[in-house]
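Q: Structure tokens for this one, please.
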Amino acid sequence: MVENPLAFNFSKTRTICDAFDDTWTLLQVLSSDLTQAPQALATQTILAKRIIEMADQGLRGIPELRDDALAFLQHSPPSASRAGSVGETPQPAATGSHSMAGKGHSREGAPSNSILWPLFIRV
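A: Here is the predicted structure, written as tokens:
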């Protein structure tokens, strides 16, 4: 079987989805304004694209992907003019290790990760 370099295997796909769910759930638990309309869609898009990008570059663990996405979002939040827009994503910013481990978030009530599926399709 020929491996497709434009697709992720199941394990990596599951990790990406779990990292996205953990990141979004943490923002919701923290009552972040970024999880509220009209910024929620733009925030989810930024997080999803960043998590996919970093997984593609070799970052493997869910906590590492989540922490990187949160650090990226902190440096590149969605602007009010882009709220709800899915066509633009800020350029990557320098990020450091901003661990959120142990902050008491759970996967209960985690949103569907269906927003990620269109981003897995690369043209």
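A few notes: The chain is about 45% helix and 0% strand. Confidence is low (pLDDT under 50) at residues 81-123.
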